[in-house]
Automatic annotation (TrEMBL):
CDD domains: M20_Acy1-like. This is Amidohydrolase. SUPFAM superfamilies: Bacterial exopeptidase dimerisation domain, Zn-dependent exopeptidases. It comes from Saccharopolyspora karakumensis. One of its GO terms (molecular function) is metal ion binding. Keywords: Hydrolase, Manganese, Metal-binding. Residues 214-300 form the Peptidase M20 dimerisation domain.
Amino acid sequence: MDSRFGSGVESVVPDIGAGRGPSWLDAWLNANAHRVVAWRRHIHSHPELSRAEHRTTAFLVDQLGRIGLSPRLLPVGTGLTCDIEGTSAGPTIALRADIDALPLTEATGLPYSSTVEGASHACGHDAHTTVALGAAMALATAPDLPGRVRMIFQPAEEVMPGGALDVLASGALDDVDRIFGLHCDPRLPAGSVGTRVGPITSATDLLELRLTSPGGHTSRPHLTADLVHALGSVITGLPTLLSRRVDPRTGTVLTWGAVHAGEAPNAIPQDGVLTGTLRTADRDTWAKLEPLVHELAQSLLAPLGVGFDLQHRRGVPPVVNERDSTELMRAGITAALGEQAHADTPQSSGGEDFGWYLEHVPGSFARLGVHSGSGRIKDLHQPTFTLDERALLVGIRTMVHTALLSLRS
């Protein structure tokens, strides 16, 4: 075992879809399942934050180059694309994975835990990257590929507006006909993949509201503008007003995450800040939210005499799965694993910059089950998040079959 992959992986995880073919895919997974697990553990133990994924990028370039592929770095310096050329002319299908980690310290206690303080793959991007790498390696052995498969290893998904815009700016989607992606889902068991037509994630914006006041003594609030009271009015009032101005069927939700103001209990502070996220599953609603939120904040604060500055940072659009692409992915799941492996999945209020791709080309984004089936669910974006490594081979089979069906559709 290459020492760069950390501790050796002596046992091979079970291949849930073994024997379902095609024969070259079965053969590749049978010979390389141990390497797939090793890749994931190597990436997991060496996480890199958004736009700093240099070591991960170099690792992928090295692995893809070893089998004769020609990866191309993105102009931003991290992330890459890599084409697997077919044996005959046909469409170009893109498969995307995100490669960055979260700014969280891991607390799993795994022998291959993160070696980087303050960074971990608590969102499963190590698995996404490994699945895409395995799919690329397997597809490169296909004897008959009627078209081109473009692998996209995207940086900076965990920041907004996201590295998907860097991929688009590079022109990597200019000749792509469809695009597909997977995301770990600890609420689905390993061996299953969830799909959904229409919105599967939400648009996500960041709000930062700064208030100013002359300040004063808490015994004389009538002689100044009570900034803390104003913050409280916005904390409770803005989400309420928004819920009366936006159709509830759009899944629009404003949630505050942090508030800071003052230090002394008997002093009205001169400034304060309130931050939160604003999410919606509806593309048209997303386009209208910024002026509406400003209008509502102004109406709440005008009678209270405080000054305010509202920074509305638009993040990512909702991921809206196109019907035909989703049907192709469902067929790919069935071909790879059997009908029982397909699961429906609900729309999530989480954000995903895969939505930027679907503004340009049709495609679909699915949920890869990673729960072992026993014990408490370890959720995403938590220091204790873990996954069942059987899901890695499930993901590879799903992406390969989806690509094959799409090339022939």
